[in-house]
């Protein structure tokens, strides 16, 4: 579990440099990971993007400093990386619900985000099946949404997107015209901080003409780690995602290659059945 131990070291590094410029490349270097892999692993393990976590910790420390010292709002703002009292006040109010000056007078309603800590456990009680697949680039068609990952908004938006797509007949029509993989849920177009992603419900392009409100995208060639998922949707899928990042990556030495991720639904069974089969595809590198 060296990977998780390195994650702990990176969190210690963040904590020691909250009032300095924190560069993602330096944080990831402490964890001995690429920037993309570190940020993706951090999000999957904690539920926070790295930037979101840093903001929360800075605003927590700033609130403590305001309440327990005679520091001026401007000085605290500058100390935690805000260029102006106005930008600091806006961020502070969004998190704590009150202004920095009000916090000095009434600290009872302030929120606190504690430093993260992982409990490292060597599980190993259940084997984790996977296979490595080399696949050339391929075209997909479908519909997408752009969603924020902050506060778990992506989970809610993607779940609603699937419900809507199933109810309006889109997924049924897509499956009729798709390729061998079946229906796909593809995460792509990650922004540098991984706070926003595009999620596409699609299928391999198998037709020349498709509806005007569909879009066509290309999935690059990659080496994929493919993980089977057994069980009803939506509950079975998140459990495997968690194990991939908390067990598989730390124990194998592979890293995320930085490309699109796919949830693959090849089965025509009822997704709510106990023996429903699906897969998670993640692009990897040594």
TrEMBL record:
Pfam families for the chain: GyrI-like, HTH_18
Transcription regulation in keyword set: yes
PROSITE patterns given in the database record: HTH_ARAC_FAMILY_1, HTH_ARAC_FAMILY_2
Record keywords: DNA-binding, Transcription, Transcription regulation
Superkingdom: Bacteria
The keyword DNA-binding appears for this protein: yes
All residue ranges annotated as the HTH araC/xylS-type domain in the record: 8-106
Protein name per the record: AraC family transcriptional regulator
Species the sequence originates in: Gracilibacillus salinarum
